[in-house]
Structures are given as structure tokens and as C-alpha cells.
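Sharing a chain and its predicted structure for anyone who wants a worked example. Both blocks are below, sequence first, C-alpha cells second.
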Amino acid sequence: MIRKSLLVVLSLFLFIIFSTQEVKAVDDNNTLESDIQEGNKMITKENPMIYEFDLNAEDDRMHKADGWSNGEMFNNTWRADNVFFEDQKMNLLIDLDGENANPLYSGGEYRSNDNYHYGLYEVSMKPIKNDGVVSSFFTYTGPSEDNPWDEIDIEFLGKDTTSVQFNYFTNGEGEHEYSYELGFDASEEYHTYAFEWLPDSITWFVDGKEIHTATENIPTTPSKVMMNVWPGIGVDSWLNEFDGNVPLIAKYDWFRITQYKITEADKTETQQTDNPVSSNDDKKTHEKNEKSYWGIVGGLGLFIGIGSAIYFKLNKRKK
């Protein structure tokens, strides 16, 4: 009877130990699911920095473009007065720029002071519905900041606001346009449009629904966030000819940046493991698990020794 009791207790002890170890291994793997390795850097979605922009008044983290033109297909000069706030919304205006102006029209552009990197970028907006114009939300950096031309776009072509166009440029290389039929007219009510920028992909969303993912030649340079409206020239095959119908206004309710954390990774440690997201934390976890393992083995040995001693002592008494 004593022998059976000891065997039962020992079996239960072993079951608890190995069950606990198995659960711990699963949990350790789960902590790595949101991490992405890029060279010697770690990009993690845990505890991101979130920046909220309500767009109901001027924000000192943003500024208005004023007094210059992009030229080429942008048939306008940016004017600070073309960015204004009304009814708790931001308005971007296309209008005439004055008599004998060249370009003839003015446009509105609102841009961040700082550059941002990998993360989720969301906007709630209503674009302009009119041939020949663009309403946009995008990230951009370029030669003016001594950077390569990197850009990620959400663009509405006024000729058809029942669709949205996604695009991106990496070091000036584009031609990644993707058009999506919305199933509604974006100019009539506010909807949320977004993209998630990661080292190995860009994924665009409409009202939280995943629409399109790009995985080739992804931009890498931190960029400003911009919103603008403008009439085109010389791009009628893309936008249709602008008919000069002004004023035109796009409305923006809010935008949000959820910027993921980027930290230095241990390259030496990464090379020593098959896990692409290993770091110093994984090394510490491994050492801790190893200590726990040998502690359990020692405890198990002690348990068996004590149990054996009790067993033989009781058998000796019976004799």
C-alpha cells in the first residue's frame, strides 16, 4: 500500500512539472509574435507611441504649407489661408490664387513638423468630388530633407470618389498603384482609411477592413505626415481635365499615428539562434529557464531519495 501511494505521488509530481514547462514554452513563443527583425533593429508593436490629432483647431505639431508650388503636375501654389478650421473639422481648399496668378489656382496642405516611422497611420476624411483634383493623406520625405524620396499614399481622384488609390515610392521608384472600389461615395460621409507600415510590408485598410498588401521594395526612411488638395495639369489621362470649378473643399475629422517601437537588437545573439527575433531578453529568459530546469531536477532527486528512504525504513520495520 505504501509503495502504491509513493508511486501515485511521484507520478502526480512529474505531471505537474512537465505540464508547467510546456505552458511556459508556449507563452514564451507568444511574446515574439508582434516582433519583426530588420538588420540589427527590433520593431515591436507592444506599448507603441500613439499620437492623436483631432484637427478641430491648429496644432503646434503641424504647420501649413505657404507661398510655394511643387510645379509640374501641381497646378497650384500652397497658401496658408487654404487650411482652416470650421465646425470642429479641418478644411483644405482649392481656389483661384488671384488675378494673373501663375499657377492660376491655390491649394491647401497641412504637414507634420516631425518625421515618423513604422506604425499604423489612420485618417477620417471626406475628399473633393470634381474632375481634375486630388485629395490625399500620405507620408513623405525627400531631397529637401537630404533624404531619398520615400512616400506612402492614400489618394482620392475627384473624378470618381467611389474608389480610392493606394501607392508608394521607395527612393523615387513608384508604379505601385492599386485602386479599390469602395462600394460607397467617399465624398458624402466620413470613413476611416489607414495603412500599416512595416519593414517588410505596407497594408492598407478601409474602415478597419484589410484591403491590399505590398511586400516589395518597402520604404525605410522616417517621413512627415501630410494632407493636401490640388488641381492637376498635364495629367488628364489620370485625373480628367480640371474644369476650373472653384472653390472646392475636402474635410478632415482626425488622424492618428500609432508608432511602433524600434530598439537595437543583439546581432551576435541573433546569429547564434534560428529565431529571427532573438535578443538579450531571450538570452536572459533561456538562462532563467535553464536554472529552473536544474532546480526541478535537483528537487526531483531529493524527493525520490527521501521517498526511497521512507519506503525501505517502513519495510525494515515490517521484517
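Comments welcome. The longest strand covers residues 248-264.
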